[in-house]
Write a structure and sequence with these properties.
The complex is a heterodimer.
Chain A: H1 5-10, H2 20-35, H3 47-70, H4 81-100, E1 104-110, E2 113-118, E3 129-136, E4 139-146, E5 150-152, E6 162-167, E7 173-176, E8 181-183, E9 194-199
Antiparallel strand pairs in A: 1-2, 1-4, 3-4, 3-9, 5-6, 6-7, 7-8
Chain B: H1 8-18, H2 22-42, H3 47-63, H4 74-93, H5 95-108, H6 115-126, H7 130-141, H8 146-153, H9 157-178
The chains are: A alpha+beta, B mainly alpha.
Chain lengths: ~200, ~180
């Protein structure tokens, strides 16, 4: 190891002897510190949570107070719950779309279940995502699809309709089956299900 | 508690110090003071600053002795504290000032019997950036492995290896210049 000329050279660095006075002073001061040494007060178990709380309790308290105040102001109500729901629905649709690419016709949400309707969707350039909801009592089926899609929705009842979802000129949605038409202006039920629909 | 101790004696001293025995602490101090002082000096501090740094290291070590968990050797724990103390002092003083001081020491005092050599090697080392010099001191003077040095300097082992590689390259150039 010492064959390296650099190592041989470095060895030449000698260290001066420290002054005895400085050594004694350091011993004296460190002994004083030793007498007043910090005892670990926190056990390992409570360490993380307690330290975090100890460090951030002021910020937490401030956040709680701020949230409480904010809820009383009118501007807080400007955040539309529908907007949040819309972005959630769009996110779901785009995630499923990534999985099935050009075979996805519709995404069906029923309770906690997510089903997909696969097929050959109509390819409309710039098509927007639509949301159609069928509800009967507590039962709700939410459908996400692109405009122009032919939906096969598993509704309980005699009729198993194929509904085409189309946008209207005023930004609404119209659903058309063989002998069935639904729009906001002409609402009607199908197999006892109420319908609501909108563009996302 | 089981520590990575250098000797049975050190293990006993640590246990006694943690139990509050002042004499055990004083013995630990005497066992390690010169090592810490030498480390501080070789890292680029003047003799006086190295004394101050060593004092600070032992004051902190004494104050926070309870936090020593024994997952490294006690001396390596001290080196970790010393590394921070030295870097702080170097930042405060500025390396140029330290170098001038060293030259001055050489002219006016006989602190070091091999002053000429010490100044020459010290000057060459002093021309390295702090982090490179610190790596050289830990590996070549203190005999640490790259892994131990990485823990002391709080960086990756590969960083230490890289610093040593660069430091040796620069030292070679500096030595060539000096003939």
């Amino acid at each position: 190891m010492k064959d390296d000329p650099i190592e041989k050279y470095l060895v030449k660095l000698e260290v001066p002897t420290p002054q005895q006075e400085a050594v004694e002073r350091a011993l004296h001061r460190s002994t004083l510190a030793f007498k007043n040494r910090v005892e670990p007060k926190i056990t390992q178990r409570e360490n993380t949570v307690f330290k975090w709380f100890e460090k951030y309790y002021l910020a937490v308290a401030f956040a709680i107070v701020f949230a409480a105040f904010a809820s009383f102001f009118p501007w807080a109500e400007r955040v539309c719950p529908a907007a949040s729901e819309t972005s959630d629905l769009l996110a779901i649709y785009s995630e499923v779309k990534m999985l099935f690419q050009n075979n996805l016709v519709a995404v069906l949400l029923q309770g906690s279940e997510l089903k997909v309707q696969l097929g050959v969707p109509r390819n409309v350039a710039g098509a927007r995502v639509m949301f159609v909801e069928f509800s009967r009592g507590d039962e709700k089926i939410k459908v996400l699809c692109l405009e122009g899609s032919a939906l096969r929705v598993p509704l309980q009842g005699k009729v198993q309709p194929v509904l085409e979802a189309m946008p209207t000129a005023d930004g609404g949605v119209i659903l058309m089956g063989d002998s069935f038409v639904w729009s906001r202006a002409m609402p009607q039920t199908i197999n006892g299900y109420n319908i609501s629909a909108r563009l996302l | 508690m089981h520590w990575k101790e250098d000797s049975a004696e050190e293990g006993d001293l640590l246990r006694n110090a943690l139990a509050g025995c002042e004499k055990a602490w004083a013995d630990l101090f005497r066992m390690h003071y010169h090592r810490v002082y030498a480390f501080a000096f070789r890292s680029g501090l003047s003799a006086e600053d190295a004394e101050d740094a060593a004092q600070e290291v032992f004051v902190k070590a004494a104050r926070y002795l309870e936090t020593f968990k024994g997952d490294s050797a006690f001396k390596n724990w001290l080196y970790g504290i010393a590394h921070h103390a030295v870097m702080d002092l170097l930042r405060k003083r500025g390396r140029r000032e330290v170098l001038l001081e060293r030259l001055h020491e050489n002219d006016t005092t006989s602190k070091c019997s091999a002053a000429a050599k010490h100044t020459e090697v010290g000057d060459v080392l002093g021309q390295l950036p702090d982090d490179l010099r610190m790596a050289v001191v830990l590996i070549y003077y203190e005999g640490k492995t790259h892994k131990e040095a990485s823990k002391i300097m709080d960086c990756a082992e590969t960083t230490v290896s890289w610093r040593i590689y660069i430091a040796k390259k620069r030292l070679r150039k500096l030595l060539e210049k000096r003939g």
